[in-house]
Write a structure and sequence with these properties.
42% helix
């Protein structure tokens, strides 16, 4: 099982991770994600050559990036050295915010026929509900994803998440239960605070980015899985652990965003371990029932069998091991790092993803201290 976080341009890191795992012979029966993780997951599940197509997708996006603004430098005081210095912020995010990324998203005013004079007055009055169009992503998806392949027997199952704008309820799009279309992927990456529009996925249902509820949709994948042992790979675009405190206000804001979008599934793992114990007990009791339940009322026996199949057969997945593969923290982190779609940034993230994945495969499951995961899963 592969779980992919959201994170804008940081999703290129997951491309590198998947490339290394794929070339290392790791195969997945289930891939899921939210936001840019949903885009990555759709390419992975809907391609005959997923590692190549995913990298080609990211490089095509990166090479379409505008280069109109130069890199910006600004002075700051380094308290460790007790001296003034300068920090540079890549120009990629500023170009993306102002002009969009042609193969990913564009400002509304670049879409022919999208705006009329009255719409500009609405913007001045603060009445716009979105600033960007992400239709370019839809065109890219149609190029790199065979949507007819999704849901076919023997293929990799795809699960992506979003949130209902009107009810705040989680939405789950599962290729094993429905036909997934580009609009479902667009819904999963329609992050409202970044100016993207909600997407109508069915009559009366309007969806925003699933990262608004959970940026690591592990729970949705586990709950949908049949009962068999699983190794879980979680790609973390936002690191949970850092090696030093933030040095300035920009780093404070950056770290705050890391924490908001970081993986928070540790307590879910503990709960699933306890649930696994309960399922094991139910299986033992069910075996006794089948051997000695001849005198049970047939209607009651039928209900027991149906409940058993629902609980154990469909929702009894047990997690054997967790491999967390986390992006390294930047030496000079900045708030707009997830909007840097330049070719240099994307290549660097892909390379880092490959390296981190190979390190994890050599190092074994999880990045906790030795024995910590075992204690966690045992409920200690």
């Amino acid at each position: 099982m592969l779980v992919l976080q959201g994170g804008g341009s940081l999703g290129a890191f997951a491309c590198g991770v998947f490339k290394a795992l794929y070339e290392g012979g790791v195969k997945f029966e289930l891939v899921g994600g939210t936001s840019i993780g949903a885009v990555n997951a759709a390419v992975i599940c809907g391609s005959d050559d997923p590692a190549k197509d995913l990298e080609d997708f990211w490089m095509e996006v990166a090479e379409s990036n505008y280069r109109l603004f130069p890199e910006v430098s600004f002075p700051y005081y380094d308290y460790d050295r007790r001296a003034f210095g300068t920090k540079g912020m890549p120009a990629g995010p500023l170009n993306a915010i102002m002009f969009g990324v042609p193969k990913m998203f564009v400002p509304r005013w670049q879409v022919p026929g999208d705006l009329q004079l009255k719409d500009w007055w609405m913007m001045l009055a603060g009445s716009w509900t979105h600033f960007y169009s992400h239709e370019p992503i839809a065109r890219m998806l149609e190029k790199y994803v065979d949507f007819g392949k999704l849901g076919k027997a023997g293929g990799t199952r795809l699960i992506i998440t979003a949130v209902d704008v009107m009810t705040a309820k989680s939405l789950k799009f599962d290729s094993a239960r429905m036909e997934i279309k580009p609009k479902h992927v667009l819904a999963s990456c329609a992050y409202s605070s970044y100016g993207f529009p909600w997407v109508q996925v069915e009559p009366g249902v309007y969806a925003w980015d699933g990262g608004l509820l959970s940026n690591t949709p592990l729970k949705e994948l586990v709950e949908a899985s049949p009962r068999n042992n699983k190794n879980v790979y979680i790609v973390e675009n936002y690191p949970r652990k850092i090696d030093r405190l933030p040095a300035d206000w920009g780093e404070v804001l950056d770290r705050t965003r890391d924490i908001i979008f970081s993986d928070k599934t540790v307590y879910d793992l503990r709960s699933w371990k306890h649930m696994s114990r309960q399922v094991d007990l139910i299986e033992k009791l069910y075996a006794v029932f089948e051997r000695n339940g001849r005198d049970v009322d047939p209607a009651v026996a039928d209900r027991i069998r149906r409940e058993y199949e629902e609980l154990v057969g469909r929702h009894g997945a047990e997690i054997l091991a967790v491999y967390r593969i986390a992006r390294r923290r930047m030496d000079s982190p900045y708030l707009l790092k997830n909007a840097d779609f330049t070719a240099r940034a994307v290549r660097g993230l892909i390379a880092q993803g490959e390296q981190r994945a190979m390190e994890r495969l050599k190092g074994g499951a999880d990045d906790m201290e030795p024995g910590e995961l075992l204690k966690l899963l045992d409920g200690s």
